[in-house]
Amino acid sequence: MSKPSRIITVANQKGGVGKTTTAINLATALAAIGERALIIDIDPQGNASTGLGIDRQARMTSSYDVLTGAVGIRDAAMETAVPGLSIVPSTLDLLGIEMEISSAPDRVLKLRRALRQAPEGVPYSYVLIDCPPSLNLLTLNAMAAADSVLVPLQCEFFALEGLSQLLETVEQIRSSINPNLSIQGIVLTMFDRRNNLANQVVEDVRAYMGETVYETVIPRNVRVSEAPSYGKPAILYDLKCAGSQAYLQLASEVIRRERRLRAA
Ligand code: ADP
Ligand code: MG
Predict the structure, then answer these.
(1) Which among 102, 119, 121, 122 would be 20 to 30 A from 5, CA to CA?
(2) How many CA atoms lie less than 13 Å away from 127 in the CB half-sphere?
(3) Is pTM, for the whole model, over 0.95?
(4) Domain 6-263, architecture per CATH
(5) How far is the CA of 42 from the centre of ligand 2 (A)?
(6) What ranges do the domains of the chain cover?
(7) Centre of ligand 1 from the C-alpha of residue 19, in Å
(8) Which intervals hold domain AAA (predicted)?
């Protein structure tokens, strides 16, 4: 039997903090070390899908179809150029989903149900859900479906702003529909060590959030930002660059934490 999958939601209601970059590169790193990985792109902008080279015309089935129950996860998943990494892409249909499901009693449980209904489970050891920059119904669906939440925080002045609201939302989901939901960790992104403010932010976030923060810090790296325009994860585009190396290191921390969470 295949190992049960671990479902990790990558969330932060702020845009541009590195959610998609983290989802793509963490999933690629996990696939590179032999884990079968799936990304579910639930951001209508579809940056994870584009960043993995899935053209809009090629998106026959999407996370929209999964949320409406029309298509199962396995059938909606497409292979990517990364061996071992698949994606359920997003389409602009998702823009309408909140309206469509908002009056359904199970509106927060759509994704959870889809992941649980898959016959014989899903053949992935890691499922990463890339969320939109909002605490909307899509993000709530992702939290309701997940084992844990991974929060990217950009190393900038307002890094911690909004974090308490995010953590409260996680707590609400935990106390209502998903009691096993935990925080996987907080990853500091786009760190520039020559910037005094960035150094201060790292210190502050560590002081405030303690061990929740991963040891790995993702540096700001131009190769990481170039990669999506080639439809590739940074790890494929330039394995040796500091950003790719940091994401490989993050993957091993994530795996260590998952083992600990699973054992608990
Ligand atoms: P989000 O999904 O939270 O909106 P993205 O992952 O799309 O954020 O990142 C926002 C922008 O910052 C993108 O243009 C991305 O390429 C860039 N970026 C993300 N991480 C890095 C990094 N480590 N170094 C340089 N640029 C980065
Ligand atoms: Mg994004």
Answers:
(1) 102
(2) 28
(3) yes
(4) 3-Layer(aba) Sandwich (3.40)
(5) 9
(6) 6-263
(7) 7
(8) 6-183
